[in-house]
Amino acid sequence: MLFLDNINQDCSDFWEEWNCHPIWEPDTNDKSPKDLWFLGQTLFGVYRDDCEGVHPDVIEEYYSIHGCPASRQPHQTGAGHPADEEDNMDEQLPNIIESVSDQQQQHVHHKVVRVPSHRSTFGTDKEMREQFFAVLAEVVTQQITPAYCQLTPDE
């Protein structure tokens, strides 16, 4: 505990410097992780996790790789019972959306909030997008680096 603040500061400094160092790979064009992150958001929009705040068990049950959960009648074991065996099987299947909603209701503590769109910053304005990337290419060519990146002259 004695050096915890110093260790946290060192980690923070390393993190800031690491995100600004260039990556020398053919696919990155010597851009830093921060540049790649910014360009990714500019080109593809901001990533939004559809499952944020949802318990992993609920994700596994309804959003897993195994497909829709199999629903059987209490007297069916799943061995040798075809899905069309019961006449009113569709009526007896639980509504997945209602089921998930009911399970998640305990986690909702506020009214519904409208979520803004996370599309490309430029929308359909192709001219502005081209102008931005032209200016960005010029900044990279002239090796202009923001002051907050803490890069040394040899980087």
Q: Could you give a quick summary of the protein structure above?
A:
With 155 residues, this protein is an all-alpha fold. It is 41% helix and 0% strand.
Number of strands: 0
C-alpha geometry: elongated
The count of helical stretches stands at 6
Taken as a percent bin, the fraction of beta residues is under 5%
Biggest beta sheet summary: none
Q: How do the helices and strands follow one another from N- to C-terminus?
A: HHHHHH
- Alpha-beta content class: mainly alpha
CA distance, first residue to last residue: 34 Å
- List low-confidence stretches: none
| Helix share, percent | 40-55%
Mean pLDDT score, rounded? 76
Radius of gyration: 26 Å
